[in-house]
Design a protein that fits this description.
Elements lengths: L3 H8 L6 H7 L17 E6 L3 E7 L8 H16 L3 E7 L6 E6 L7 H14 L4 E5 L7 H4 L7 E3 L2 E3 L1 E3 L2 E5 L14 H12 L8 E5 L6 H9 L4 E6 L3 H16 L4 E6 L4 E2 L6 E2 L6 H9 L3 E4 L4 H8 L10 H17 L1
Parallel strand pairs: 2-3, 4-10, 4-11, 5-9, 5-10, 11-12, 12-15
Antiparallel strand pairs: 1-2, 6-7, 8-9, 13-14
Helix pairs in contact: 2-3, 4-11, 6-7
Length: 339
């Protein structure tokens, strides 16, 4: 379907706009694909006795390109305007973006590892994925994703960096990894705002790795940026399930749909004899999901390769093999629930 800009160029411009469009067609589109006229970014160009006016559609372009592009367009229009006033407005359709919160209610259950691998699996499936490490006090995504590079900024907006096909931001990329953050709740919530309100471009789905518990950061996310759904991670043991139930209760109170539960560290296969043992129990999460009327998304075994891959900065889902296939299936299950 033709873009709004292209449709207007064909139907609403008058004959005397040809020179204006010719001048604007000399400007390369910031996407690198053609010029701004053929890309349909020039909307409703008009020349009257007193003004030269048009709208410039910057949908999908990084915010850092807006001001330079506006300057180029104004300069080109001024060359045609003569004594007339140049009137230019920028417009952009806000990219529809769905937030998927990944929580657990407690630490140590592998929530961050699951969040990172789900993000990578979704990206490998062709989705445009963002990953926000909302664990302000204990950020781990830079290590799991192998990306400690400090992000740039355009004005007041951070520019996410890319790792394994996923755009990501973490407070761990902005502060010394060896120093504790002695921040009160409002400061942590403000940090989350900086991450969520970054320039995510055309990202479709944003995976938010929540911190343990049900505190300020969780409330800020749920109240201000209402996730499309939540995924809860737990080990099979009762202690983890008690905390997972608290996280579920918070999501429900805030009217956030629960997409499902994931059972992590479910079964350990001895690398020497192959015998499977269950150090954290087995089946507890699936049973709890059935009891609470929540979809059970699947289980992830306690496998050393998943841990070592995260420590090495190459999530399992970025590789090939049986464990990567597990995360691919979990990602498909989540998308099925979301849709």
């Amino acid at each position: 379907m033709a873009s709004p800009g292209k449709a207007l160029i064909g139907s609403q411009m008058s004959e005397n706009t040809d020179s204006l469009l010719a001048a604007l067609a000399a400007i390369t589109d910031p996407s690198g694909d053609g010029d701004i006229v053929t890309r349909g970014r020039v909307i409703a160009p008009r020349l009257t006795g007193e003004t030269v006016s048009l709208m410039l559609d910057v949908t999908g372009l990084p915010s850092a390109t807006h001001e330079p592009l506006e300057r180029q367009v104004r300069l080109a229009a001024a060359g045609i305007a003569g004594d007339r006033e140049v009137q230019l407005a920028l417009t952009a359709d806000r990219t529809p973006r769905k937030i998927i919160a990944v929580g657990s209610g407690k630490g140590g259950v592998g929530k961050s590892t699951v969040a990172a691998n789900l993000a990578v699996a979704l990206a490998r499936a062709g989705r445009k994925i963002g990953l926000v490490d909302a664990d302000i006090y204990g950020p781990s995504q830079p290590t799991i994703m192998g990306m400690h590079e400090k992000p740039d900024a355009a004005g007041r907006q951070l520019l996410p960096v890319t790792a394994h096909g996923v755009r990501m931001l973490s407070i761990g990329q902005l502060v010394d990894r060896n120093k504790a953050l002695a921040w009160r709740g409002p400061m942590a919530s403000n940090a989350l705002s900086q991450l969520i309100e970054a320039d995510w471009g055309d990202t479709e789905y944003m995976i938010v790795d929540l911190p343990p518990g049900t505190g300020d950061v969780q409330l800020s996310l749920l109240q201000r940026w209402k996730p499309a759904g939540a995924v809860v991670v737990s080990t099979p043991q009762d202690l983890s399930l008690v905390d997972a139930a608290r996280a579920i209760d918070l999501f429900r109170k805030m009217d956030v749909p629960i997409l499902g539960l994931i059972e992590n560290m479910a079964g350990y296969a001895c690398p020497h004899c192959g015998e499977v043992s269950d150090p954290f129990g087995t089946g507890g999460v699936e049973a709890a999901a059935a009891q609470m009327g929540i979809h059970f998304l699947g289980r992830i075994p306690l496998v050393a390769s998943i841990r070592s891959a995260g420590d090495a900065g190459t999530p399992t889902a970025a590789t090939d093999g049986a464990e990567a296939a597990l995360f691919e299936q979990l990602a498909r299950n989540i998308m099925a629930q979301l849709n």
